[in-house]
Amino acid sequence: MKKSTVHLVNALKAKLLEFPKLVNKLENKDLDFIHQFTLWLRNCEELLATYQISNVSELSGIRSKIIATRYADSPSSSSKKLQLKAAADTLFDAQQIVLNVLTPYEAKIEESKELIRQLLVIVGQTKAIQFDKKQPLDYLIHEVWKFILSNDQLKAGAVKLRTTIPMTDITLLIAEEIDLEDF
C-alpha cells in the first residue's frame, strides 16, 4: 500500500513551520538551540526515511557535522562553541533540503485537488447523485467516486488521480473539496 502523500505534505509543512522558532533560539543564544535543532533534524530524518526519500542522507550529513565538532581538537574554542557554529552554518541548508523535498509533493497534491474540484463540479451539475443526510459522508464519497469511474467523460480524470496519488489520498481530498450543497 502506498503511503499518503497528503500526510507527508502536512508533516513537512509542520516541520517547516517549526523552523522560525529554531532561528529565534539561535538569535537569542538559547542554550537549548543545539539540542532542539538536532532533534528537529532527527525528526525530519525519520519522516523522510519512512517515505524512503533519499534526501534523508543529506540531513544526516548535516547532523554529523554538528556531532563531529564534539570530537574536534581545537584549543582555542570550546566544543560547545564549535557545535553552535556548525549548527548555525547548516541551519539554512537543512531548511532548504526539507523545502526542496516538500515542493514537488505539494504541487502534486494541489494539482490533484484542482482536478478533484473540477470533477466534483461536473458530478454535482449532473444531479445524478443526491446526498441523503442520514447517510455518512463516506457513503457519498464512495458514490461520487463510483460515478466518476463509470462515466466515460470523467474516467480519464480518475485514471490521472490514481496514477498521481494513492486511493486513500483521493478519498481524503474528495472529502475536503466536496460541497454538500451541490449534492
Topology:
Blueprint: H1 5-27, H2 33-50, H3 56-68, H4 79-126, H5 137-150, H6 155-164, H7 167-177
Helix pairs in contact: 1-2, 1-4, 2-3, 2-4, 3-4, 4-7, 5-6
Plain-language structure description:
The chain has helices spanning 5-27, 33-50, 56-68, 79-126, 137-150, 155-164, 167-177. It has 183 residues and is an all-alpha fold. The longest helix is centred in the middle third of the chain and has 48 residues, at 79-126. The chain has 7 helices and no strands. Helix 2 (33-50) crosses helix 4, helix 4 (79-126) packs across helix 7 and helix 5 (137-150) packs across helix 6. The mean pLDDT is 90. Helices cover 75% and strands 0% of the residues.
Q: Find the structural class using helix and strand composition.
A: mainly alpha
**SSE string, helix = H, strand = E?**
HHHHHHH
Helix content: over 70%
How many E strands? 0
Distance between the termini: 31 Å
Question: Residue ranges: pLDDT <50 for 5 or more in a row?
Answer: none
Radius of gyration: 23 Å
Q: Mean of residue pLDDT?
A: 90
User: What kind of sheet is the major sheet?
Assistant: none
Our count of helices gives: 7
Q: In percent, how much strand structure appears in the residues?
A: under 5%
Globally, the shape reads elongated
Question: Tags for this entry?
Answer:
mainly alpha, 183 residues
